[in-house]
Write a structure and sequence with these properties.
It contains 9 helices and no strands. The protein is mainly α.
Length: 225
């Protein structure tokens, strides 16, 4: 469920009405609560409250970030579908409506069988796995291509037509040399600063001239310089 939430974000408004910053902290907090709840239920010999787990995950942990009503309704459906007792059944299918690839926990005992099953997974997951129309992938790839082209155009050197043929980098360099550098004050010499601080007197009772390290204001001035 956490993986599907992260993958839906790449589809933009098609995935969520509002982009949410789901992260590993939400996953860890939910897993911690589920582990504690299941351990307590086992020790007290009481049934697991799936309704309580669903509420804590969909309305508290992840739901605390969801502000849109449609997003909250969709996430509630995800929670009821993937956080329930049926997931412990052998070969439980997580995408019952998808025929391209069956995502499930295989009932194997050999490590090699699990690796073989993992290697069969498609490299690119289709939008229907996330509950979206197949055309959502076309929209995502168009947006991704447009963003990449815009980045390439922004990073290309620009030729300035009205600045004597200077590029943007040359214009910035010229502005720094001719306008900004002359505005800087003359560099000070720390030895001269120390000599001048030694001549300063502080408030009565806080030190005499020649020992500026005992005067707080002079110490502050020295550190700032």
């Amino acid at each position: 469920m956490h993986s599907v939430l992260l993958e839906r974000r790449k589809f933009g408004p098609l995935g969520f009405c509002i982009p949410y910053a789901f992260n590993n902290a939400d996953l860890e907090a939910s897993l911690t609560f589920i582990e504690k709840h299941m351990t307590t239920s086992l020790n007290l010999n009481i049934p697991i409250s799936w309704k309580a787990i669903q509420y804590m995950v969909s309305d508290v942990q992840y739901g605390g970030k969801i502000t849109d009503g449609l997003d909250r309704e969709m996430f509630g459906c995800y929670t009821q579908f993937w956080i329930q007792e049926q997931i412990f059944q052998p070969n439980y299918c997580f995408n019952q409506l998808i025929t391209e690839f069956t995502y499930q926990i295989p009932d194997y005992v050999e490590h090699s069988k699990f690796m073989e099953y993992i290697n069969k997974m498609p490299s690119n997951d289709g939008p229907p796995i996330f509950g979206l129309h197949p055309n959502a992938d076309l929209t995502f790839r168009l947006q991704e291509s447009t963003a990449m082209i815009n980045v390439l155009l922004d990073t290309m050197p620009k030729e300035a037509g009205g600045a004597g043929g200077l590029s943007r980098e040359d214009q910035v360099k010229e502005k720094i040399e001719k306008e900004l550098l002359p505005m800087l004050p003359i560099d000070f010499i720390m030895l001269d600063v120390q000599d001048r601080l030694k001549q300063l007197k502080g408030p009565r009772g806080l030190g005499e001239a020649g020992n500026y390290q005992l005067i707080p204001l002079n110490i502050f001035l020295y550190q700032e310089l």
